[in-house]
Amino acid sequence: MAVETVTPPPLTPQVHQEHFSELTARALISGLVVGSLIGASNVCIGLKIGWTFGASITAAVISFALFKAMSGILSRPYGARENLITATAGSAAGTMASAGGFVACIPALELYVRETQGPGRDLTYVQLVLWAVSIAFLGVFFAVPLRKQMIVKEKLRFPSGTAAAETIKAMYSSGAEAMKKAKLLFWAAIIAGVVKMLFSIKPLALGHFSDFSLDDIGLGTIGILGVSLASLRMGVSLSPMMLGAGVLIGSKVGWSLFLGAVLAWGIGAPILMDQGIVTAANPNGVYIAAFRWLLWPGVALMVAAGFSSLALQYKTIANTFGSFKRLVQGRKAETVQSDEDDDAPDPFPIKWWAVGMVFATALTTVFAKAYFGIPVWMGILAVFLSFLIASISVRASGETDINPVGAMGKITQVVYAVVDPGKIPTNLMAAGITAAGASQSGDLMHDLKAGYLLKVSIRRQVIAQLIGVIAGVFTAAAVYRLLTAAYTIPGDDFTGPAVMAWHAMAKLLADGVDSLPAHAMTAAAVGAIIGFIMPFVAKIKGVGKWLPSPIALGIAFMVTPYSSLSMWLGAVITAYYTKKNPQAVESYGASLASGLIAGEGLMMVVVAILLILGVTWIS
Predict the structure, then answer these.
(1) What are phi and psi of 471, to 5 degrees?
(2) How far apart are CA 113 and CA 187, in angstroms?
(3) What was the pLDDT predicted at 107?
(4) How many CB atoms are closer than 10 A to CB 120?
(5) Torsion of CA 302, 304, 307, 309, to 10 degrees
(6) What SS3 state is found at 235?
(7) Which residues contact 116 (CB under 8 A, 6 or more apart)?
(8) What pTM value is reported for the model?
(9) 412 contacts 108 by C-beta, under 8 angstroms
């Protein structure tokens, strides 16, 4: 199979002129601060919509602007290679929301424990930190042996990593643009934070207006088959976070969410109520009752689409195992001098890697046994499976920029349904190891791609990633625990679509189809068939662009229509302005969106703290 390659563009003079170590305290600290803040907002948005967003380019832009403003008092210039170390540490810290399991497997496990044993048995903060660090370390060490084959020899694209390198080089060619982006991000975050706080203040009666239902605009009597659409939470959220997410997801995903919201909540839920399949004691319970049924076709659609997309990447999977063979055979016999000359300097020592891999494996298996009762041999099996699966995930990310973390986790869930049937904690947390490995290894590989293009020390990048993991997990775990203390998760404020997907999959594998609500199995089967077929149909020339995203379609069944329609609105507005001024949207859209997401996400943490403290004027 011919692998698409990207030839490294010529380096800027500023990169060549750096003769000092790029792994500096200022590079690390700035990356860790920005990455931890983004990680905090990622916990919030991940529990709302099931997605998280990268921190690499954001950390690079903000740190560049900061040190550019301080250039008059710096003893030496803040260089491009330092900037990439900042981006590497920042992306590692920001990824801990997903790699640590705080938006999927951890809340799914705690939901199961609440259902079976009652409240009060959640993992402690220290347990969360230790578990998340161990599984994220695995992901870092998974990436190291794959780097040379995928980045140096095959030159896979890793689009996000290439974009980060190009962004850094562009900033050091003309810093004015980066300063504008940083200022826009800063002010967007301030505005989003203020809006969120206003929406949370009881005396001003704004707490009810962040979500505009049909009631709020005088259309509360509109219904279908006698079911009020307002009771199904049809409307648009004015949440800056949701609007910002809409800017990032693009037009196709936005319209897919719109279609899913209409199908699930505008058509499906009223039919369910009219036919008596779903019942609710009062209008306030209509949404929850419908949600418990609709999540099944939504989950089935997403899981089947994930497996189908994976099947279409059979060449990627074959190439991955071909890489293993070349890696083993080629370490001694196939060293290509041109590759060595072209590579970044200072490789990560193989002895360090071996020690780190053993250490991370030991930590993971010990904590899996101590916290979740997973036998040591099953923990070791999970690590082995996770390496194989993460390798496929990394290659997929390198070729398409899509890291199929969810599908990878589902594979492990199916495996452990056979290895340890009926054990939901084992099922969830073994899959959590896989998801962490896929997430963190993919994140590091994009950074290593940027380092390859900028000729940054490999060893120092890996060290920065490990430090970022450690720093980021303290913030992500703290924010997660604050949110669970102030809110019910999943619940009205944080619907947790990824949480529900993982929980539903584990419960189905453990309890069988009899555990589903009436007729939900039929709907799930239909959803699975549609989800499986869609990626294949999308490959037909001229058809794919008209098909919705199956993942977004499924998520719309599992989040409130407020959220889906708000992200759709953000995507539509962005598409409109793209037609008017595509250059402006391309240059500043991501900065605006990142600011909106981060600003509201951080203010959510503040609001949670105020709720825990018993402040009476907070909604």
Answers:
(1) -70, -40
(2) 41
(3) 93
(4) 7
(5) -70
(6) strand
(7) none
(8) 0.80
(9) no
Q: For residues 413 and 431, give the distance between their C-alpha atoms in angstroms, rounded to a whole number.
A: 6
41, 13 contact by CB (below 8 A) = no
Rg (CA), the chain: 24
Token couple for 455 = 């000729």
Residue 527 CA to residue 523 CA, distance in Å, equals 6
Phi and psi at residue 327, in whole multiples of 5°?
Answer: -65, -45
Average pLDDT per 10 consecutive residues for the chain, totaling 619 residues: 37 46 90 92 87 82 89 84 93 91 92 84 92 93 85 81 85 80 88 86 56 50 73 80 85 90 90 86 77 85 78 67 57 44 78 93 95 92 87 76 71 85 90 88 88 90 94 94 90 83 84 80 90 88 83 84 88 91 86 86 86 78
Q: What are phi and psi of 236, to 5 degrees?
A: -130, 130
Cα separation, 105 vs 496, in Å, equals: 11
Burial class of residue 487, CB neighbours in 10 A (0-12, 13-18, 19+): middle
Domain ranges of the chain: 191-309+511-604
What are residue 224's DSSP bridge partners? 227
First-to-final CA distance of the chain: 57
- pLDDT at residue 211, as a whole number: 56
Exposure b/e, 497-532, CB count within 10 A at least 16 = b: bbbbbbbbbbbbbbeeeeebbeebbebbeebbebbb
Distance CA 238, CA 217 (A): 14
Taken in order 393, 601, 247, 54, the sign of the CA dihedral is negative
| Residue 516: its H or E element | none
Q: Where are the beta strands (DSSP E) in 105-201?
A: none
